[in-house]
Amino acid sequence: MPKTQQKAFRDALDKVLHSHIDQDPHPAILALFEEKPNPELLAHISIEAYQITQHFIDYIEHLHFYCPVQRYKLPLLVNLYEESTGAISGSKNHISLMEDFLKAQGIDKSRWENVKPNPETQELIDYRKKACRNPDTYHIGAAAVMVASEGQNLEDVAADARSTLLEAKYGLAEKDTLFFSIHAIEDIGHTQQGLSLVSEICTTDKMKEEALEAVDHTCKLFWNMYEAIWVKYQAGEGIAYHA
Q1: Residues 157/25, Cβ–Cβ less than 8 Å
Q2: What is the mean pLDDT of each run of 10 residues along the chain (243 residues)?
Q3: Can you list the domains of the chain with their CATH numbers?
Q4: 222: burial class by Cβ within 10 Å (0-12, 13-18, 19+)?
Q5: Nearest 10 degrees: Cα torsion 159, 153, 94, 177
Q6: Do 178 and 93 meet the contact criterion of CB atoms below 8 Å apart?
């Protein structure tokens, strides 16, 4: 593909991503930072977020294994290494960082281990997993994970809320919100890598359309996840647990 066409498609992917993240954050996120702290809502969101966090390594493993362009394999391997160990950031593996965030809120381990994800959360998990595990849909998985998912932390208000504002509003320490502060920095580079990779491997109009749709659809699935949490919270429904 000529470089000019590749750049135009890269810009199109970026435009779809920003059409979502440049909007105001979901009301559930905004409600966390109203005048009065809302630890119950924060717990709902955090426990649901843990469900998607524990699958992220699976996505990156498959994206690395099936990557069709050799020069992108090393950045994916570095991403996988950091997610799995936290060694590059000098912290912990990222699932443990999310667990630290849950523990700091006083949430018992049995609650996040036995929770049954909302259907909307499960749909987000399954959509990305299915695309990443099939080499024939690699471009869709890469767009969904490396662009749309990594790009979620580029939104300024949400990125700030997940670290500094959480500490100030809920009395958390810096070590308790490392998951968010680390991702706010790392995901800038990951998203740029994703845009470059996807724009290079999509060599047909069909692949381009599918990648653009993957970015759009994944962003909508994130919104749907927050919407389901918000609706259940407003209705006074508790978190569902496995029997």
Answers
A1: yes
A2: 86 97 89 88 94 96 98 96 95 96 92 89 98 98 97 61 78 92 85 97 97 98 96 79 46
A3: 3-234 (1.20.910.10)
A4: buried
A5: 0
A6: no
